[in-house]
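Workshop exercise sheet. Pairs work together: one partner reads the sequence aloud, the other fills in the structure field after running the prediction. Swap roles for the next sheet.
Pair: D.N. / O.F.
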Amino acid sequence: MDEKRMGISGSTLKLIAIIAMLIDHIGAIVLERMLRLGNTGLERMEIGIDLSGLYVIYMVMRLIGRLGFPIFCFLLIEGMQYTKDIKKYALRLFLFAVISEVPFDLGFAGRGIYWQYQNVFFTLFIGLLVMIGFRKLEDSKKWGTISGYLLYLLVLGVGMGAAELLQTDYSAMGVLTIAAMYQYRRKRVLSVGIGCAILTVMSILEVTAFATLLPICLYNGKRGWNIKWLFYAFYPVHILVLYLIACGLGLGDIMLR
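Structure field:
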């Protein structure tokens, strides 16, 4: 009966997030370059496009993209709870954070090395370390005491500070989102709702993230296809491909940051 449980699996959730992310990044890496150059940029590509219409398409794509991060946070928490080796899980996130950085910098900054903005894998990695710290405190004798709660806040503060210092994607608010969703992980709708609320406080454009409540409510707790490596590989590869497309359009030299 468990195998026939209705709903969508974790792998389906991951594919939804990947598609949302791809749509978002097409807008951020390709269309934003076109908009930044305006008519001059369109002349360089020898095409005619209504800039106002292009801006609407760009905004729609970016709003769709807001669905990605909350789902990845949700799956990060799920993975943290069910992984057989938390150290390997953390190492894998860190490894791909490093691998993804040059493609990320090229795509989002237009240069090979850009220290002022780091990719989302670093945010997820820091968020995972914060949750590991939370778990250790919850399992300790200090849990439930004033000192335990203070240490809890210290772990969160260090994680948020690290994300802000490194200027990771979503930065401190991204880590806070992960931490808050972890706290309410046993109440799925509340967990995701609070996470999306935090992101919306960060930016009103994140309001469309609340749409993730629907697929996550349909989540059946099953793993689904074993595609864990798809996201890891897809992230740096698709960003690099989109940057190369921008280069092919003559827009690769545009600095986005």
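Discussion prompt: The CA atoms of residues 80 and 103 lie 27 Å apart. What would you look at next?
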